[in-house]
Design brief:
Elements (H helix, E strand, L loop, with lengths): L1 E3 L4 E3 L6 H14 L7 H6 L1 H4 L8 H6 L3 H17 L4
Antiparallel strand pairs: 1-2
Helix pairs in contact: 1-5
Length: 87
């Protein structure tokens, strides 16, 4: 069960939320040197970037990933794409 602020009650969930999956994916990007546009994201992931070179270039962060990070990043991206409403 997870608490829903919208419903102000506990809800059953079978899977991680899009918010959590995005957070996990952003954490992988931050650990590989991506600096985010939003200052709150930079503050959240600052501990991962101490002593590392950071950049605004997402492609550079993806290129810097090891095999496990790349697999996890791609997996999370696919799951997030499937969660998007179909138009």
């Amino acid at each position: 069960k997870v608490y829903s602020n919208d419903a102000q009650d506990w809800e059953e969930r079978d899977f991680l939320s899009a918010y959590t999956l995005n957070y996990m994916r952003d954490e992988i990007l931050a650990a590989n040197g991506l600096r985010f546009d939003e200052s709150s994201a930079n503050t959240t992931f600052n501990y991962l970037q101490e002593g590392k070179e950071v950049s605004d270039n997402r492609e550079a962060a993806i290129a810097a990933m090891n095999e496990i990070d790349r697999y996890n990043y791609e997996f999370l991206s696919k799951i997030l794409a499937l969660m998007q409403p179909q138009v």
